[in-house]
Amino acid sequence: MAEVENTDRDRPVDLRSDTVTTPTPGMRAAMARAEVGDDVYAEDPTCRALEERVADLLGTEAALFTVTGSLANLLGVRALVRPGAEVLCEARAHIARAELGAHAAVFGVTSRTWSHPRGLVDLAAVRELLAPDAGPYFVSTAAVSVENTHNFGGGSVQPLDSLRALRELTAASGVGVHLDGARLWHASAATGVAPGTYAACADLMSVALSKGLGAPVGSLLAGPAAAVADARVWRKRLGAGWRQAGVLAAAGMYALDHHLDRVPEDHANARALADRLADVAPGIVDPAGVQTNIVVLDLAAAGIRTGAAEVAERARAAGVLVSVLGPAALRLVTHLDVDEAGCRHAGEVLSTALK
Ligand SMILES: Cc1ncc(COP(=O)(O)O)c(C=O)c1O
């Protein structure tokens, strides 16, 4: 069962992101006990154990522990897309909007996007964009990237049928599939579909330990052994080889042991928060659309004239932190450092701040 030591009513209720969690005492103790070695020499037993465990969980041949999800995504997309070719993704995908153009800046990857209000795969749009062999004048498509759950889409879960259909469509034309599974655990918790079933719809994928699972650092890139071995070389080439990283891997192991099973609590808290806010401001969010731990509020849809930044500032002054996604959009993310009472408190504070 999860520990709740981090919940402290004197601290703000921080709903900006699920990355803000701090390691629990149990996690810190596991880090202190970790057996370590030099991971660049592949001699860190805790890193090896974590990589094997995540590969097993996802049903892939291998996995590579990386410092961030952005790095795991960068290495994953690089493995599928040669310089000058393109990756297709949804317009608000993390790889398109929140990785500072790394895929283009570092590896010469170009991209085109489709738009979906909740960030979902749009098969008709993909079919239209897909250009696996675009000849000497146009950019060829080498991969499609999907985000599950979709962060800026409001934590939405990609329907398994669409992922399978995407896999079929791309495989037929030799195009790869990259999965940004930073919150794949949340998709699984929401649907009961095993992580490995989602993973089977992709060639390479990233999963995070430092978001809903509460580890201080770390993601993994998972996929075929040869691609992961190559990514290990590129990780070092980019200066991100690390030495006694087992202390961090131990936090990840602990997160998988103790925090994976409690993810549904975050979903219930998010849904309750959405219910409360939809009562106060009809139209601000559709609670039925809150599938996981992310709630996106659309102030304009609720006829609220106050800007998102002003509402966030009012909430901050009352001890509740939220993210501003746009002039009229706020994001609230539940996680293991905010309990049910904290979310109720946030609901009260936001109800007032929205008026
Ligand atoms: C969907 C998604 N992918 C990737 C990342 C990148 O993770 P990191 O912050 O570890 O680079 C994030 C971060 O929040 C994310 O939400």
Topology (elements, then pairings):
Layout: E1 13-14, H1 25-33, H2 45-58, E2 62-66, H3 69-80, E3 86-90, H4 94-97, H5 102-107, E4 110-114, H6 123-129, E5 141-147, H7 160-172, E6 176-181, H8 184-191, H9 195-199, E7 204-208, E8 219-223, H10 225-237, H11 246-258, H12 263-280, E9 294-298, H13 308-317, E10 320-321, E11 323-326, E12 329-333, H14 340-353
Parallel strand pairs: 1-10, 3-4, 3-5, 5-6, 6-7
Antiparallel strand pairs: 2-8, 7-8, 9-12, 11-12
Helix pairs in contact: 1-11, 2-11, 3-10, 12-14, 13-14
Residues 19, 68-70, 73, 94, 147, 151, 180, 182, 208, 210, 219 line the site of pyridoxal-5'-phosphate.
Shape: globular
Pairing-aware structural class of the strands and helices?
A: alpha/beta
Bound molecules: pyridoxal-5'-phosphate
Rg from C-alpha positions? 20 Å
Order of helices and strands: EHHEHEHHEHEHEHHEEHHHEHEEEH
Average pLDDT reading = 96
Specify the biggest β-sheet: 7 strands, mixed
Strand content: 15-25%
**Strand ordering within the main sheet:** 2-8-7-6-5-3-4
Distance between the termini: 38 Å
With helices defined by DSSP (H or I, 4 residues minimum), what is the helix count? 14
Please describe what this structure looks like.
The chain has helices spanning 25-33, 45-58, 69-80, 94-97, 102-107, 123-129, 160-172, 184-191, 195-199, 225-237, 246-258, 263-280, 308-317, 340-353; strands at residues 13-14, 62-66, 86-90, 110-114, 141-147, 176-181, 204-208, 219-223, 294-298, 320-321, 323-326, 329-333. The model is unreliable at 1-7 (pLDDT under 50). It is globular. The chain has 14 helices and twelve strands. With 355 residues, it is an alpha/beta fold. It binds pyridoxal-5'-phosphate (PLP). Pyridoxal-5'-phosphate binds next to helix 3.
